């Protein structure tokens, strides 16, 4: 998948105002509309122009796209970084669902679950405020213990000159013990303001975990790589393993192999029922950095006459 330069598609600069984006779209839409255009590639160009306008004409999508686009240029091979949109506040509660909206794979990867959202709609003079949505990153350890944290959100807005700006706000949020990735926290009254005295909307925070140097998460289950010495794997041993909130004594069975998973029932994310923690064994070889260590390896070679590739040889 290639990174799409939506500004180039509309023939405008990245500093363009929202009004300039709208005018560029209308001009190109008239030029390439399949019902009237004589251009040989009119249908494809019309689709590109329409998609570019859907991304840039929406203030929130544009702000997120601009932040991501700082590191990319059009035509480069592209995959969205994990949680690239964390911290951006969008209007409309996110359904979490993606689907085929007739857009490119690039658009779907970024905005599929937000297609059609974010633009004000006419309504009654007295109405509840619009719900907002944001993805936030938390530490895995906070999901184990529960915590209260200050989180920063950025809400895109248009200034008096028609340029997109980011308004920041801090929220004190209680993180429940055992919350999983993909779950939503509802903050009542923290969404858009109501109209004509109507109540404010709600803010829905979608939970994602920060990348952890030690642990990986799958639902409620947690995985950790556990290094053991060759003799611990071969002879069995009792070793200390870390969990996100404690340490435990773990029995390594005799004859264990690299990649073998040892299950610690109920040591994953808290819940009803709790998840499990899996220690994935990795064999750590002592360095042969002294004459004595090198001789020990030679003695092992003589003693075992072991060929690790025997099973793959014809």
Task: Kindly describe this structure.
It is a single chain. This protein is an alpha+beta fold and 314 residues long. It is built from eight helices and twelve strands. The chain has helices at 6-10, 18-32, 42-56, 59-69, 105-111, 140-145, 230-235, 291-304, and strands at residues 89-91, 132-138, 147-158, 164-175, 184-187, 203-209, 215-218, 221-228, 237-243, 246-252, 261-264, 277-283. It has a four-stranded mixed sheet. A four-stranded mixed sheet has the order 7-8-12-11. Strands 3-4 form a two-stranded antiparallel ribbon. Helix 2 packs antiparallel against helix 3. The longest helix is centred in the first third of the chain and has 15 residues, at 18-32. It is flat and about 85 Å long. The two termini are 41 Å apart. Residues 95-101 and 116-121 have low confidence and may be disordered.
List keywords for this structure.
314 residues, 8 helices, 25% helix, 12 strands, 4-stranded mixed β-sheet, alpha+beta, single chain, flat
Summarize the helices and strands and which ones pair or pack.
Elements: H1 6-10, H2 18-32, H3 42-56, H4 59-69, E1 89-91, H5 105-111, E2 132-138, H6 140-145, E3 147-158, E4 164-175, E5 184-187, E6 203-209, E7 215-218, E8 221-228, H7 230-235, E9 237-243, E10 246-252, E11 261-264, E12 277-283, H8 291-304
Parallel strand pairs: 2-6, 8-12
Antiparallel strand pairs: 1-2, 3-4, 5-6, 7-8, 9-10, 11-12
Helix pairs in contact: 2-3
């Amino acid at each position: 998948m290639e990174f799409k330069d939506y500004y180039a598609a509309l023939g405008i600069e990245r500093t363009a105002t929202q009004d300039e984006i709208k005018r560029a779209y209308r001009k190109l839409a008239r030029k390439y509309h399949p019902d009237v255009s004589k251009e040989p590639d009119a249908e494809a160009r019309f689709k590109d122009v329409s998609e570019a306008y859907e991304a840039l004409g929406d203030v929130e999508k544009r702000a997120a796209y601009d932040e991501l686009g700082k590191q990319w240029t059009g035509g480069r091979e592209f995959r969205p970084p994990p949680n690239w949109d964390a911290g951006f506040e969008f209007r409309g509660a996110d359904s979490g669902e993606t689907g085929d909206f007739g857009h490119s794979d690039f658009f779907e990867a970024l905005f599929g679950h937000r297609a059609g959202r974010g633009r004000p709609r006419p309504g009654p003079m007295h109405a509840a405020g619009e719900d907002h949505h944001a993805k936030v990153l938390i530490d895995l350890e906070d999901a184990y213990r529960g915590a209260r944290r200050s989180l920063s959100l950025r809400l895109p807005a248009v200034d008096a000159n028609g340029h997109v700006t980011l308004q920041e706000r801090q929220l004190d949020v209680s993180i429940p013990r055992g919350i999983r990735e993909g779950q939503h926290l509802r903050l009542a009254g923290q969404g858009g303001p109501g109209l004509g005295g109507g109540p404010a909307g709600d803010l829905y925070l979608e939970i994602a975990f920060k990348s952890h140097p030690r642990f990986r998460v799958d639902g409620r289950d947690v995985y950790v790589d556990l290094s053991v010495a060759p003799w611990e794997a071969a002879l069995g041993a009792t070793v200390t393993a870390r969990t996100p909130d404690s340490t435990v004594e773990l029995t390594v069975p005799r004859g264990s192999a690299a990649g073998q998973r040892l299950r610690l029932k109920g040591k994953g994310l808290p819940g009803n029922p709790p998840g499990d923690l899996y220690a994935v064994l990795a064999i750590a070889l002592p360095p042969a950095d002294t004459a004595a260590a090198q001789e020990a390896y030679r003695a092992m070679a003589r003693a075992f006459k072991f060929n690790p590739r025997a099973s793959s040889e014809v």
